[in-house]
Each structure stands twice: as structure tokens, then as C-alpha cells.
Amino acid sequence: MPSPHRLGRLAAAAALAAGAAVLASACDGQAAGGASSSAPAAPFDVSSLRHPTGRMLGVVDDKSPWQYGIVTTFTRQAGRAPDIREYYGSWGDDFDTEGNAFLWQHGQLPMLELVPSDTSLSDIAQGADDAWIRRLARQIAAYDGPLALSFAGEMNGPWNSWGPGHATAADFVAAWRHLHDVVRSAGADNVVWVWSPHVVDSGTRARLRPYYPGDAYVDWVGVIGYYGPIDGAAFSGLFTPTLREIARFSDRPVLITETGVAESGRKEAQIRDLFTGAAQADVIGLVWYDQRKNWPGSSLPMDWRIDTSVGAQAAFRVESERAGFGHPLKDG
């Protein structure tokens, strides 16, 4: 079943001006005494992030990086600040250089879920939007910090315009590789590339290997799955089959890039099951969807928030700590 987020086009009118200002400062600054302009600062070195040693704990919603309320709310609910702040961006939007820098300065690794919206994967692969991709890459390179970047998440979900029935696995792979190559050639080496399929369940039966761009194009494998009213009852059924399938063709580190436990009489037990299962599966972290929204395609209300009850909040705090989730990526 599709994850419960609803994507709107993010407003980023101020980001272009901010990105341009940063680029101008980096590229056109003059040394004292009239010397030639200095070279741009080197992008942040993400080599240590490609194989993190601890288990991260993150939060995701559809607000922009500047909307920091989700971080403070998560910190209050979970008893600790998140290590990852995941958000969504639409194809064609500019990168919010200063908003992402704000997150990194406050200890959160920004993670951008880049949504192709109504742009076809074949057009992307054929270079139709290369001018925008290069501009995006320059803005990312000018940002003095790391960025985890996922493109066209849940590509195996038929509910997406880039999923089965709308585009082929070959289309997806070609678009991913092209985006990756253009971004890298434009100098944005501060990116951790995250491939994020939905778990294989009753609504997503497409095999995953044909959608995999290859280890040369992926740093982390991300997996999306929720404990909800239809497919998600236990880690062994929700995540384990998908993790086993992925292990047959990739040994990249695995991050659960979206998850949550809906309010029910089993929520405390399922939170315990999630953290225990994730630790046993040796994932590098999980990102919690701390929102209340209807299940997609229905009017069924789902409350994924940590603090839907005293017991749920206590379970989250105790079990996340017991399983060793929470690994600060930045000092200070």
C-alpha cells in the first residue's frame, strides 16, 4: 500500500536568490590586493557517511527545511533530537541552500526526496531538463554540508506516475543514472544517493532488481513501509521479505527511509517489534513519519505520531534507546 504522505509542490521562491548569493560569494570573491578570484570551496566530504557506524533516528514530513517545528516536536516526543530530517521537493524547484544549511548546523542530516511530479522518466533520461539539473547541482555543491538525496521514491508503486503501469523499470534506471551523472559532473560530490523502493506487499508486487540502478549509482538502500491496517503487522512480514530480496543484488547499507506505527491497541507492541526487528536486520537507521493523515485512497484516519498515548511514547523512547538508535552525525 502507498505510504501516507501527500505531496504538494513546495514553495521555494526565495531559494534561488539565496542559492545565487551563495554561489556568487563562493565563486567571485576577490582576494586582498586585487588578486584573482578565489576557487569555490570544496564540497563537504561525505565519505564517512557512506558507511556509518551507528544507527540513526530521523523524522520526515512534507514541510520545507525552514519549517523546523517537526524537529522540535520530534525532540520533545522522542526525548532526543533527530539525526535525519527528511523532506520532499518537486522536480523543477530550486535547492534551499540556506534552509538545508540551517538543518545541518543544528545537527540534522538533510534528506531530500526528489519527486519527478509530472515529468516523464524518459524525458529526464534523454536530457530534457539538464539545464535545471545542473543548476540544482551547483546549488547543492555550494551548500557547505552533506545531503542525502533520493529520487522517485516508491518507484515500484503503481500509485505513482513513475511506477508500474506508467513507466518501465528501464525508464527509471535510465533516469536515475542520468540524474546521478549530471549532478556529479556539475561538482556536487556532497551527495549520499539513496534508492528507496516501497516494501513488496499486496499493493506492490513488482520485482525490485530491475529497478536497481547498480552499486556504482547508489550509496544507501532505503526501504519504505508502515505498520498500518492492511499489510504492516510485524517486521517479519513487513520488511524482512523485501530486505532478503534486496540482499540478493546489493550489499549497500540499508536505511528505513519512511515508517510509522498507526494508532491501535497493538501500537506499543508494534513499536517494540519495529525497533527490535530493525536492529536485528542491522539497518543504519530509520526515519519516522510523525503525522496524522488518512490512509491513501480512503477516509480511514491514521495517527502515526509518537505520542498518541503515554504508552506509545514510552515505548518509542525505551525501545529506540534499547536498540541503539540515535547516532549524532555532527558535533555541537
In short:
The protein is α/β, with parallel strands linked by helices and 332 residues long. 33% of the residues lie in helices and 15% in strands. The chain has helices at residues 13-28, 69-78, 97-105, 121-125, 130-142, 169-185, 235-238, 240-247, 267-280, 310-322; strands at residues 56-60, 84-90, 109-115, 147-151, 191-195, 220-224, 254-259, 285-289, 292-294, 301-303.
Describe this structure as you would to a colleague:
By secondary structure, the chain is an alpha/beta fold. The protein is built from ten helices and ten strands. The strands form two sheets. The protein has an eight-stranded parallel barrel with strand order 1-2-3-4-5-6-7-8. It has a two-stranded antiparallel ribbon with strand order 9-10. The chain starts with 12 loop residues before the first helix and ends in a 10-residue tail after the last helix.
How many distinct beta strands?
A: 10
Unreliable spans: 6-39
Between the first and last Cα atoms, what is the distance in angstroms?
A: 39 Å
Structural class: alpha/beta
Order of helices and strands: HEHEHEHHEHEEHHEHEEEH
Q: Main sheet: which strands, in order across?
A: 1-2-3-4-5-6-7-8
Write down the overall mean pLDDT: 88
- So what's the overall shape? globular
| Oligomer description | single chain
Major sheet summary line? 8 strands, parallel, barrel
Keywords:
alpha/beta, 332 residues, eight-stranded parallel barrel, two-stranded antiparallel sheet, 10 strands, 10 helices, single chain
